[in-house]
Give the backbone structure.
Amino acid sequence: MTRNPPRRALALLDWIYNPLRRLSVSAVYDLLGTDSPAAGGHYLNLGYWAEADELDAACRALVDLVGARAGMAPGKRVLDLGFGFGEQDLQWMRTLGPEAIVGLNVTGSQVALARERVAAAGESARIDLRQGSATEPGLEPGSFDIVVALECAFHFRTRERFFAEALRLLRPGGRLVLADILPLAPAEGWPRRLAQRWSWREVATKFAIPAENAYPRAEYAERLRACGFTGVEVESIRDRVYAPLHAYLRANPERLSTLPPALRTAVRFGLWLEPDTVFAGLDYVLASAERPATDQ
């Protein structure tokens, strides 16, 4: 993450407004740094707004939803891919108390800050955060009861390589849970399909989503099954993510004050548009699957 404010401002302008500019996943998150509308900048997810009425509560609710769906509990070993600044791991350890959490993240600046936060919380013995790849984790087969990826699997090159690694790393009967972003199935009528394509392209190009990961919900479930998972469930929760977040930020523009000017302007433009336009092509799913209890 650049510590030179003028250089960072220019880099943000180039990334946001230059249609030819592409960055790697780690370069995107290095550039964004710790700036976030969430208090303290420690949560990076979009939130789950079924009951929450405030951003930090919504971010925490999504973390809790993933933890509950995964069945985190004492005695469970968890692998967390793309852990951000470690806030989700601290939350799971506080509330669900798994035996251990190992985290992998490709962005070195996030790993460094997350480790500092875990150490400050006195949890370094139970939360082990490392720099590494979800598709080449270098971990022992069958070493985890749970694998989770909260708002990051869309980055992996490819998501299916990650599925295969998750299956390898899970113990028999182990569980995979993802909160993930993917394109909606094409709508009827060319105006709506055009809006969908624009919406997805803007997100995919700026946030380093490989073309290989651009498939809708039904195919997502089939690819999990093809990798060997059973009990596959892929539920769209987009109505409890995108529109409520948009409404909250539109009603509370002061939450954008922590963002650098170039990014703040881009977000405000998105808030000026209706959410049905901004998120026209984006689905948001909560997916879960299990490694078979016995090999077939």
